[in-house]
Write the structure tokens for this entry.
Amino acid sequence: MRRTLIGAALIVAATAADAQDKVPPYWASIASGEAMIRTGPGRNYPGTWLYQRRDLPVRVIRIYQSWRLIEDPEGVRGWMLVTLLSDRRTALVKPGEPRAIHEKRDRASRVAYLAEPGVVGRIEVCDDIWCRIEIGKRRGFIARSGIYGVSSTETID
């Protein structure tokens, strides 16, 4: 039992270390239900915004020790402790009209449902045009032009 716990702890530590070794810019998401950004990379800097939205996609711009300079979907930047971030890929439906979630990677395919602007979903796969997204228990394909959380030249397998 003890060996299992130690092994599990080592795997978690290795995963966290891998996540911290990424070279910016890269995408992440907010891992916690409450996450503060600050004016600088340290707890002694004033907090400027408290995010209360788990899975919100953010862009990591810079790294300084255990702090990440992030940019949110509205362009707000601030420093966040790396432990408040996750490697889980998520996307935010962009403002405007509700976006069609198709059954297949084809505009002519049946629309499974519509996603309202501001909805956050988990991204599973993205090609040049489409991303497979999971919103709650529903899945489908959304045009990547309709979401924030994926770079224009990025492919996700």
Observations:
- Confidence is low (pLDDT under 50) at residues 4-19.
